[in-house]
Amino acid sequence: MTGGGALPEGFLFGASTAAHQIEGNNTTSDWWAFETRPGSPLPEPSGDAADSFHRWPEDMDLLAGLGFNAYRFSIEWARIEPVRGRFSRAALAHYRAMVEGALARGLTPVVTLHHFTVPQWFAEAGGWLAPDAAELFARYAATAAAEVLDGVRYVATVNEPNVLARMDTVRRLFATGGPAGADLDRIDPAEDITEALVRAHRTASTALREADPRLLVGWTVAALGLHPVEPGAEAVTAAVARRREDVFVEAARGDDWIGVQAYTRTPVGVDGPVPVAEGVRTTIKGWEYYPRALGDAVRRTAALVGPDVPLLVTENGIATADDTERIAYTAEALAGLAEALRDGVDVRGYLHWSLLDNYEWGSYRPTFGLVAVDPRTFERTPKPSAHWLGALARDGRLG
Q: What pTM does this model have?
């Protein structure tokens, strides 16, 4: 940071979204099939979501008008390739229009290729563990580079591969019926899915750079904030961190950048992760209210990935119905980020999660958004936090 707390020139200050969570009616994806199947364990399906498939110009107008200069959004593989080998010209044109719309509004687009959803045909063929999964993903990435990404600098291949890997492992556990009564918090990602995702990331990264050498390619990793809470739990904490986070961060050492996504911290006992202690302040998601997670995460990620890979904060926020609490949480998180910048951590941007209240993978109840969305009319209403954070972005400061 420069004198007086001003941000470095070119610092990206904006907000993030994900296609499935805001677009609505992503009917050819695996998540849509999961949400709508009889007996689905999810409380509610995504449905129309925030109808951002049609209302994205309004969303970008809001973001730019509030004072932000960057927008992270994902493009939907299931829309672009709804049937194996058949690419939708309309979907490609739609996402190309979004990139052009962001650029026209002075918003730097940070584009994610995969944010938890895949085409249903890909899932049915074995998903990430299929023999040709990496090549299929790379073909999609190359198509996106050729048809959508001109003018984009930052591209993320996979969002939170460490979370995605655990989700896949849990899914397989349920599919095989056991072990009965398993504590899901203690399930680590299987080695095969970890290796498959790293392979897919690297294969797609090569395809993207070959298609457009101007692209800066990385992926975004969830910072888990694992910390020991019982005597003797230090070694267990380190081992869990290695399996659930570190291996994915270290896979980014040859990348152009890495995304850091931080919300909270995770307590670990001698037998592994444990629930948040009774009486600890929590959010709607049940996570500990812990704004310092962001500062801790950027420092730890920088140490793991090495000095040659810059960082972007691609997600940070809080699920709360109290917007005053959102401002307080974010202010403290940004203070920790500012301290890291002053200490020389190479962070190139901060993208808040989320621009909109949206579908949180099973429920609309956790509200992360800077902007409220009426579920019937889809009217957007910026919250005080949106105006507060936008003013910081306009001023080029973190506080």
A: 0.97
Are 256 and 217 in contact, with CB atoms under 8 Å apart? yes
Out of 160, 245, 288, 315, which one is annotated catalytic? 160
Answer for the pair 69, 109: CB distance below 8 angstroms, yes or no.
no
Per-residue pLDDT tens digits for 55-70: 999 999 999 999 999 9
Which stretches of 160-310 are assigned E, i.e. beta strand?
216-223, 226-228, 258-262, 266-269, 272-273
Active site residue 160: yes
Domain tally for the chain? 1
95-103 contacts: CB < 8 A, separation 24 or more? 95/144, 95/148, 96/147, 96/148, 96/150, 98/56, 98/60, 98/73, 99/148, 99/149, 99/150, 99/151, 99/152, 100/151, 101/56, 101/57, 101/60, 102/60, 102/71, 102/73, 103/151
CA distance 281 to 266: 13
CATH of the domain at 74: 3.20.20.80
Query: In the chain, pLDDT over 70 holds for what percent of residues?
Result: 97
Report pLDDT digits (tens) over 206-221.
Answer: 999 999 999 999 999 9
pLDDT band for position 3 (cuts 50, 70, 90):
very low
Domain residue limits at 47: 3-395
